[in-house]
Write a structure and sequence with these properties.
116 residues; alpha+beta; four-stranded mixed β-sheet; globular
Amino acid sequence: MKKVYYLKTCSTCARILKELNLSSEFILQDIKTEPITVSQLEDMKALSGSYEALFSKRSKLYKEMGLKDQKLEERDFKQYILEHYTFLSRPVFLIDNEIFIGNSKKNVEAVKAVLS
């Protein structure tokens, strides 16, 4: 399966998707209009190893809610990602049985390498 979880209103996500010029094989899921399900998140966790790896600590809400001053556990990361789309580090690419999380240059290059 080839899927991308992204935010349509995020300029970084839009830039990365344009740069990658994905084929029509990819399913695009805008996480704001089509929220992530428990099952989708559990699939991502199985590939990434933890919910924390999927969690964005750069989110405005993370700071506003004072979460950076709390000791969060795996169940907390899962709960917050399911409650609000902003907590998912994005974009998340699922390509066959591999996962690529976030918008770092290294991550985007890794996606390019798999696609070529």
